[in-house]
Amino acid sequence: MREELSERKSQEGYEWQIIEKIKETHDTYTYTLLPVSASQRFNFNLGQFVTLYVVLKRPTSTGGFEENLATRAYSIASSPTRNFLELTIKEEKPYGYINPKTGKSDAFAAYFNQQVKIGSKIKLKLNQVKEHFLWKVDAGLEKNVAYWSGANGAQSARSLIQYMEDKKDPDFSLVLFYSNTNLHTDHANLDIIKSENQPVDSLNVIYFNWLINIAKKLENLKVIFTFTREQEIPALSSTDPKVIYRKGRFFLNPDGSPERTLLKYGNNVETSFNPICGSSGFINGTVRLPNGTINRGKGVLQNLMEIEGIKPEKTDKEQFYLEQVDANQ
Ligand SMILES: Cc1cc2nc3c(=O)[nH]c(=O)nc-3n(C[C@H](O)[C@H](O)[C@H](O)COP(=O)(O)OP(=O)(O)OC[C@H]3O[C@@H](n4cnc5c(N)ncnc54)[C@H](O)[C@@H]3O)c2cc1C
Asked: Which domains are delineated in the chain?
């Protein structure tokens, strides 16, 4: 009876309320949610995601606004050991972007971040796939984790770090490889923020300060930041040997030769379990060109297998979206 009820609820969805909203970067917020009542609570595992159902007001090409239901998937960014749910939502499509085919905005995040406030109630469903992202870690089958994150992709790593904080399992270790373009937002974005009279904080890396602080506290956590578009390594001083800054792409030496990044910074290549999370371009080099064609290249997945000799069963992936290449890139 109880199982039937929980099955029905998981299909209908649950109602949770926003109790906190924290700005991470100029285009990203982290939300804390609690169930509106005890019957709305559900348990979840490391690496699972929820789908949000929200009515949003979005622009059309004729200058008006339309209000309708929009949905998107979000990885749970908090640990299953905690009694709340945290979600970090980054805007990929710019505010005001209109789909040229439909003449309407089809973005979600920019309007969610604008319109959802503390107190807002949100309908959400938990994805029920059994072999979900990180399920082997959740089941305790993999404990030496090398997590590869694109600029938007560290949410499940955050969940895992909170989990490590709570569980205090000495066999558990995490090396987070975190790739971003730049440490700070470029000037064009900053001008937009200034023109909207928002407080200017130029940090571009989600969870940056939190990661540095938590790496000091957790012995079994190491963070390798790389900045792919910086000419120099940003002027950062790390007194913690477990926080490393570098520039360029993972798996590439400055002279362009292949680099064994996992061997260099990881714990043990043989036993490493390698979840990869981010855009299609980051994971496997697949991008959509401005003319709509799909270009297949290589990403972290191929690099791990070809350069480091990692077996497919020692990898795991969660793709957030198909990467679109700008005409001017
Ligand atoms: C399982 C799963 C888990 C996810 N977890 C998270 C998460 O925890 N946090 C998170 O932020 N996101 C997550 N996402 C992605 C999320 O669902 C949204 O896609 C994301 O928040 C961006 O939303 P958006 O409304 O800005 O763009 P969307 O409407 O969702 O569109 C994204 C697409 O827009 C393209 N795009 C980027 N810039 C432009 C442009 N200038 N013009 C046209 N198209 C452009 C991108 O290449 C991409 O293909 C997840 C996705 C999945 C499938």
From this structure: 2-126 (2.40.30.10), 135-324 (3.40.50.80)
